[in-house]
Fold this sequence. Notes:
The protein is α/β, with parallel strands linked by helices. The chain is built from 15 helices and 16 strands.
Amino acid sequence: MNVLVISQLYPSPEDKSTGPFVHYQARALADRGHNVRVVSPCPWAPPLPWLPNKWAKYRSIPKSYAINGIEVTTPRYLSPPGLRTLAISSCSARWTLSKTQILQEFTPDIIHAHVALPNGYAATALADRWDIPLITTIHGADFYQSVDSPGCQPQIQTVLDSSSVVTVNSTTLRDVGMAYFEYNPVVVPNGVPLDEIEEARALDVTIPNTESSRVIISVGNLIERKQQETVIRALSVLDRDDIHYLVVGSGPKRDDLEQLASDLDISDQVSFLGYVDSHQRVYAYLWNADAFVLPSRDEAFGVAFIEAMACELPVVARVSEGPEDFVRDGETGYFIGEDEGETELAELLADLVDDPDEMAAVGKRAREVVKQDYTWEANADQIESIYRDVT
C-alpha cells in the first residue's frame, strides 16, 4: 500500500528529536512492505541574519531528504509566530499542499495526517483531490492547546468530519476531545523502540553526586505542566540525603527550578542535564536510575513513561492522565492523586527507596507490559488493520 504521511512533527538531519514517534511508526509500516512517503510542512523563514534559533533552524532544513530509507519532502508555508495565529497557518499549509506538486511517481492509496492543525486541515484538500481515505492521529496539542486559539475549533471539527478514521493515543485524550467535539475515535497507543532501548543498556553515562544515593529521574520539557517543581519540593519535605533527582530536558522553567533547589538548600541533590540530543543516551540514563517520577498534568499519553518502564523502572504519575492506560498502581508503577502535591509524593518516594527489592520487581513487571503491548510493531498492527478497513 502507498501511504502518504503528512506531519510537521518529523525528524530532520538538523533536528533528529522532533517527532520521532511519527518516524518510528512510518518505519514499522515500511518494514511490513508498505511504500511510505512523508510530507513535512515547514514554516517559511525569511533570509535574515538575526532570526531566533527556532526560525534559523527551519531555514536549514533541506527541501528533501531521507531517513532510514523513508523519503521526506518539506514544502514551505507561511506560519506567523504564536499559537493565536495557528488558524491562519493551517489555511496557509492547506493552500500550499493543494497547489504544490508534492510527489512525483507516487500515487498514494491513503493519507495519514499527524495532528489536526495544521497537517490534518492541509491533508483534507489532498484527500478530496485524489478521492482517497484520510486517517488523522491526534497527539494532544489539538485538544489541550489549539482548541482555545481563535478560529481553530471549527478547523479541527472539519478535520474530524473529513477523516475516515480518527485515532488518539490514550483514553484520556479521547475523553478530553469529546468535551469539545463530536467524533468517534479509535485508541491506538504509541510504542517504544525496544531494540534501541536494549542497546543503550551497555552505554556508559555518568550521574554526578550519586555514589550512595537512589536516583529518581524525569524526562520532559521544563514547563509548568510537567511539574518537576513538585518533585523538588518533595525532596525538601523528605529531608534526607540518600535520594538524588536527575532532571533531563530543557525549557523556560529551568532557571526557576534551579533557583528553587537552591532556595530549599538541596542543590547538591538535583542535577540538571539539559537537553540530551541522543535518544540512546536518554535511555542509558534511564537504565542507570532507580525510579521515574513525573507528576505531570495534561499528559495526553506519556511516551517517556513507557520508555522508563522499558528500562525496568517503576514510574510515578498523576491520576486522570494518559499513563492511567498502561500503569497499574502498585504493580507496574504508582500514582499520586489529581490534587495531591509534594507531601504525598514525598511519602511515596520514601516508601519506594526504602524497599529496593520491591522497586526492582515493579520495574520488571513494567517492562513486560511494554514488551507485550507498547512496541511499534504492536502499534503498526493496529494502524495496518485500520488502513485495510478503509481502502
